[in-house]
Q: What sequence folds into this?
């Protein structure tokens, strides 16, 4: 049945009900002696005469209108053709009287003529609204039944609990005299229009369907079965797992239940006053009935004890809608929440999701999908979003490069909070290391790039249910190229590089370090980033002897970290100046250990020869003398830059005296003596 036909049937039903209501108002006016309501009549044929027979005439008209309405309702008994108010009454168990009172309260918004009638029957031109007293006088003949009918406005009854109508006025006024009104959303619903309440627009965003794997689909079916076994109409579900996968499960459950899933903006809701939030919670419950709305509350970034956490509690305790609470951990609540643990999709399932999501776009991808699956651990929603971003980036056919970059752009504020992003600025030609070190770095890059072939095509992945990640230790003195090497790998592999902020990760509070590390690794796996743990000996050092409970928990944290490193699907690079400070148990789990030695004379000369850009103005640089300075590559770059500034200030090219003066400053910074053996003929000048 078309939407237009449905609205036509709904309009006919409303008009028939309003016609009957007009006649009931005339009957009440006649009984009360009023005589100025003729304009409410449907037509001249029903205009009563001003004599004792008028009441009988009205009763006949009421009976006829009621019969017409019943015949129309028989024609509209089909579920798809049922009028909006009739469907609502059935859904929330409204009694016939509650249904008629709701229509009486809404009538002035549907036809302003009713406001004039209410003013006259209330004997007050300023009271042009419905009241419970007026409704009972018009709709209920038996005085005893009128007294019992007051219960329809109890707070727990549907009319007020679901905000189907508003009880306005001063709470100290008699209940029977307080105005009964219906807001714009309800009026639109009665007319057959289905639009979310405008007050909720800024707080809700629809959750789009996403490709789902077999495990996700199976869990959604199990959740539906759980809900079907419950006696409560709405039962909250706590989905514990990754944000993308838990959201996909919630969306699949809603699709099976015929509900529309919306995520709540908890931050914006927390900005409202308690009274405003109470109203919004009630409106969410009303939309669950009017529009088949279900509510998603994502707690993955919510701090316990925060104002936002209080909002989560209010939603769990108060919303009368199908509620899904999602997060990495079970949300503590006294409410009866069904808990379901959601495992992330396997790599095989992710590959299927990618292909489903890509099927709607032009592309020529094949092997690229397998490589993406190995590098980026994304859930259903994130996969769909990445494909959309790639399509927007290319404006046409999706390329492998566009899709790879789209995965890299996957938003994750958590990682940026706990790690420092590094933009790669170096290539293979920039690093001066021995042949063995360079070969190890190349092997490391190849292992990352060839995981799809080795793990999937050649089947080695079946032997590695866990531990597919690649972990490398870069050990050597400060300034020998460890961070540069990590940048080169990131640039070569087209991946992001994040340096872990140890100050932000390590906490003195029990359990916080472990929690922070989990957040770092989970966010990094989604973005496929390379993790650089600088000064790793501070975090991965030798496990302590147990002297007290703090030492015992420190060892628990280290053990957790070791396991998490082994499970990490990406590349983790650990940099340390003191290899001997690392725990041997940890070293055994590393796939690569790359030593960056202090550069010898030949290496230092090569660094000096490459440190000056082609555009730099240089004059008579003696690289043999410079190579005698016992410095690392980082110090050499610092000297070159400082020497360039000295030359620029003098308005001349860079010369040896400039560089040697800058070298003397670098020595002082490093607390090294300036010896004549190293500085030779420049020694008197730099020490003067």
A:
């Amino acid at each position: 049945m078309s939407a237009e036909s449905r609205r036509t049937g709904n309009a006919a039903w409303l008009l028939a009900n309003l016609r009957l209501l007009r006649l009931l108002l005339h009957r009440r006016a006649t009984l009360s002696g009023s005589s100025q309501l003729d304009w409410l009549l449907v037509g001249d044929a029903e205009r009563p005469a001003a004599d004792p027979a008028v009441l009988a005439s009205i009763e006949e008209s009421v009976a006829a209108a009621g019969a017409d309405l019943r015949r129309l309702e028989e024609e509209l008994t089909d579920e798809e053709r049922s009028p909006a108010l009739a469907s609502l009454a059935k859904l929330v168990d409204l009694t016939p009287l509650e249904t008629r009172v709701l229509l009486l309260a809404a009538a002035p918004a549907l036809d302003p003529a009713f406001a004039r009638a209410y003013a006259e029957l209330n004997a007050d031109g300023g009271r042009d609204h419905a009241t419970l007293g007026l409704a009972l006088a018009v709709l209920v003949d038996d005085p005893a039944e009128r007294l019992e009918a007051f219960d329809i406005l109890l707070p727990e009854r549907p009319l007020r609990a679901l905000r189907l109508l508003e009880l306005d006025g001063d709470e100290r006024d008699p209940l029977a005299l307080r105005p009964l009104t219906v807001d714009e959303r309800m009026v639109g619903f009665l007319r057959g229009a289905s639009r979310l309440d405008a007050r909720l627009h800024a707080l809700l965003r629809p959750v789009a369907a996403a490709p789902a794997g077999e495990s996700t689909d199976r869990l959604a079916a199990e959740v539906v079965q759980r809900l079907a076994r419950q006696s409560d109409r709405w039962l909250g579900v706590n989905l514990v797992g990754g944000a993308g996968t838990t959201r996909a499960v919630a969306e699949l459950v809603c699709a099976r239940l015929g509900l529309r899933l919306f995520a709540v903006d908890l931050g914006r809701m927390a900005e409202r006053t308690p009274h405003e939030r109470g109203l919004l919670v009630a409106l969410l419950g009303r939309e669950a009935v009017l529009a088949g709305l279900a509510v998603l509350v994502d707690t993955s970034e919510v701090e316990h004890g925060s104002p936002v956490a209080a909002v989560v509690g209010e939603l769990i305790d108060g919303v009368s809608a199908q509620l899904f609470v999602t997060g990495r951990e079970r949300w503590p609540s006294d409410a009866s929440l069904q808990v379901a643990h959601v495992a992330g999709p396997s790599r095989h399932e992710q590959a299927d999701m990618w292909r489903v999501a890509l099927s709607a776009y032009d592309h020529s991808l094949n092997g690229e999908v397998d490589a993406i699956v190995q590098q980026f651990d994304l859930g259903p929603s994130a996969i769909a979003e990445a494909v959309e971003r790639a399509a927007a980036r290319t404006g046409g056919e999706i390329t492998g490069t566009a899709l790879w970059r789209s995965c890299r752009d996957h938003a994750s504020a958590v990682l940026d909070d706990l790690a420092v992003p590094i933009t790669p600025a170096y290539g293979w030609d920039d690093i001066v290391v021995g042949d063995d070190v360079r070969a190890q770095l190349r092997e490391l890059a190849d292992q990352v790039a060839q995981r799809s072939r080795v793990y999937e095509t050649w089947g080695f992945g079946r032997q590695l249910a866990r531990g597919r990640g690649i972990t490398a230790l870069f050990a050597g003195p400060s300034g020998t190229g460890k961070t540069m090497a990590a940048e080169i790998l990131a640039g070569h592999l087209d991946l992001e590089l994040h340096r872990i902020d140890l100050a932000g990760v390590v906490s003195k509070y029990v359990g916080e370090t472990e929690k922070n590390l989990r957040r770092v690794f989970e966010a990094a796996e989604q973005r496929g980033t390379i993790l650089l743990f600088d000064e790793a000996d501070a975090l991965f050092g030798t496990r302590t002897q147990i002297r007290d409970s703090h030492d015992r928990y420190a060892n628990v944290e280290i053990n957790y970290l070791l396991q998490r490193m082994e499970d990490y699907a990406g590349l983790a690079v650990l940099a340390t100046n003191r290899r001997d400070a690392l725990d041997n148990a940890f070293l055994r789990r590393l796939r690569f250990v790359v030593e960056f030695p202090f550069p010898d004379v030949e290496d230092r000369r090569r660094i000096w020869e490459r440190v000056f850009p082609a555009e730099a103005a240089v004059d008579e640089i003696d690289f043999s003398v410079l190579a005698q300075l016992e410095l690392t590559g980082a110090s050499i770059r610092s000297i070159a830059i400082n020497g360039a500034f000295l030359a620029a200030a003098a308005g001349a090219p860079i010369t040896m005296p400039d560089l040697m003066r800058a070298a003397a400053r670098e020595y002082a910074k490093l607390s090294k003596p300036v010896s004549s053996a190293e500085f030779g003929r420049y020694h008197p000048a730099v020490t003067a």
